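Have a close read of this protein, sequence plus structure tokens, and explain what the tokens say about the fold. Thanks in advance:
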Amino acid sequence: MAADSNNPELDLELLPYLRLYRNGVVERLLGTRITPPGLDTRTGVDSKDIIIVPETGVSARLYRPTAVDPHRKLPLVVYFHGGAFLVASSAEPIYHNNCLIPLAAEAQTVLLSVNYRLAPEHPLPAAYDDSWAALQWIAAQSQTSADEPGHEPWLKELVDFEKVFLVGDSAGGNISHHMALRAKSSNLGAKIKVVGIALIQPYFWGQEPIGSEITEHHKRAEVDRWWNFVCPSDRGNDDLLINPFSDGSPAIDGLTGEKVVVIVAEKDILRDRGKLYYENLAKSEWKGKVEIYETEGEDHAFHMLDPTSEKAKALIKRLAFFLNED
């Protein structure tokens, strides 16, 4: 969107996310609220903030259920939040209160939510690099003894590193996909085992409209504008970061893991991209199990905007089942 002619200092307004001023200042319009970590007395889930990469300041919020069998190791969920690569963090209330605590409580897992750096201050691929650094840090933690400096006790005491899951919503679903591809071709598997991937209303796109994108012109134009601001590449909506099926993209059967669930919402403009991902993975040479779960009558991120609804609770329960079904 062009700059506001009534404000000569405004360079760009990218609703609903941010305003960019000519002096380089970024004013975020949402996703900036902070909820402190700590024990949630309703669920018994505790949380704390940790620094993962001191050099870049990349942090994470770590969650653990407190009422667990001390002799049983728990799965680890590595969570990548959404926000179009532009906004949000683990501390944002709609994540901390409405998504991450309920998921850790329902699934009885340890959960590490990565706070990757955001565009435009940190252009892509910074978010992917930070997310990969987080996975490498986790892998290093799996090899660290309890008496070594730098070890994270919650991980060491509670986590089964043979049961790691990559989970993300929207932009975070996109990140989860790319991390699963990178993990397959790395030595990560020698230290931790990624057994599953959950993509919640994943942020994929493409130059050629499909499904509801063909008629939802306004929504289509919005997503076009968001992506081309975040990633102004020559390939536009067919950039390899946003379209997993464009020419030159890594083969989808190169995913690590044994199972995938793709979660979509009926009214979400991204729904048909999620369904396409499911369909292409299901007919590929990938050897794992892939499922799709669709919530009727709901739009993007509904489960965080109205977490007490029965449909939101059902989504969290479906995720918890996916994480524990073995």
About this structure: The first helix runs from residue 93 to 107. The two ends are 48 Å apart (CA to CA). The CA atoms of residues 163 and 326 lie 10 Å apart. The chain has a mean pLDDT of 95.
